[in-house]
Structures are given as C-alpha cells and as structure tokens.
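Write out this protein's structure.
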Amino acid sequence: MSELARMGVIGARGWLGGAIVAAILDAGYRRPEDLTLSYRNRQPEGPAGAHWTTDNQELVDRSDVVIVSVRPEDFPALRLSAEGKLVISVMAGVPLDQLESHLGAARVVRSMPNAAASVRASYTPWYPGEACTADDRALVSTLFRVCGVADEVGSEGQLDYFAALTGTGPAYHALLADTLRRDAIARGIAPDVAARATTTLLLGSAKLMEHDGRPVSDVVAEFIDYAGMTAAALQSMRDAPLSAVVGRGIDAALERARSLQNTS
C-alpha cells in the first residue's frame, strides 16, 4: 500500500483518536486534506482542511486506511463495511476475529497506542492479522513511529498484556505523582510546592533514564549498592513489595479488558 494512502479516523474527537490525529499532522505524515474524521455530536473546529463527517460509512468509502478509535463497548453498534480496506483498531479487548467478521475486512491490525501520541511520545505495540501484506505492516510501523516508539509484538495475547501495561498512558505515572504529592502535603509541605516537586521529579527522571540509556534494573542496583538514603527507600518499597501492588493492578486491567471483549 502506498504511503500516500488516504486515512480515516473513526472517533477522532475522542482522547486517543484526537491524539493520533495530532501526531500525524505534527509530523507532517499526512496533510489535513488527506484525512477524513468522524464525530458523533459536535464537530470540532479543527484541523482546518480535514473532512469531518458523522457518517462512518462515508469515512470508510473516502479512506484507504481506517483507524477505529471508539470505546470497546460501543463497537458492536458500529455498522459499516470496510471490505478492501486496511483497518487499524486501537480498542482494548476486541480480538482480530471479531474485528474481521464485524467490519467485513480481511486486513486488520490490532494496536494499543496511548494518549502520549499527542506529543509524539506514545509506546505502541501492534499485531497484524494473517491477511496483512508487507506493505501494510510497513505503513503501520511508520504510522506508529510518528506517534512515538512502536513494536510489532509476537502474539495477540502479548498485545492484550500491553494494553494493560502501556495503553494506560500517563495514568500510572499520574497515580505515583499524586501519591507522592499527598505524602508531602501530609508532612506539611505547601500543596503548590508538593505538586511542583513531584511533577518535576517524574519528568526529570524520565528524561534522565532516556538520556542514560542503561537498563532500569542497573539504575536501581546502583542506587541500592550505594547504600544511602535512596537505597533505604528502595529496599523498603521492595520489601512491601511494590511489585505485588503493580502486578495486581495489571491483573485488574487485564480482567477488565476481558470483560469488554465478552460484551463486544
């Protein structure tokens, strides 16, 4: 498939759909005129030049590549025929076979970007159906590299796991930041100072890890080996253990994804 293929985004007014559109345009990967975008209620003001519609079949007919970005529970009500199109789903919990049968499409890709795509910082795992061609896979790889970092994963089961791990976007980081912020406030720190300190801590740490490039396990080991104040904190969190809390959270997300799948 040509890299100049026309693209449609069903649900472009939503958080994730809008983030993907923002990344596509920010990178110059497509012009607004190459995009057909759908919405349900109120038409957004931009991007100027894109074609907006409430008719999802019109969107499909105008597009070579169709990105489906609706809530999984809303997917069964989506009635359209995408035969001959490359369909890319960004929905959690809706498997390839259901996508293929419901949309009448043979070439289907499941993916799980997150809202950090809007600043071109998403991690996007994706998995292609058997009918996808080499050109289809090349297009999908390029599309999601525009949104940040992307990997083709080895199975649909791995894609489901990544939906719970990375599809959450900033949610886990926001929870950690809020937990640290609340602890600081409880110890008498002014709320605005606590918020600034915790946000800067997480942003600075992420940038440092990216610049450092070492495995994160090596960074943790180095701090523990130093045997200072940070080591004491890390060891206490390990003894808690933090890993069990994280594991339970991932399991809860996976269970929710399965329940969405069962209702789709």
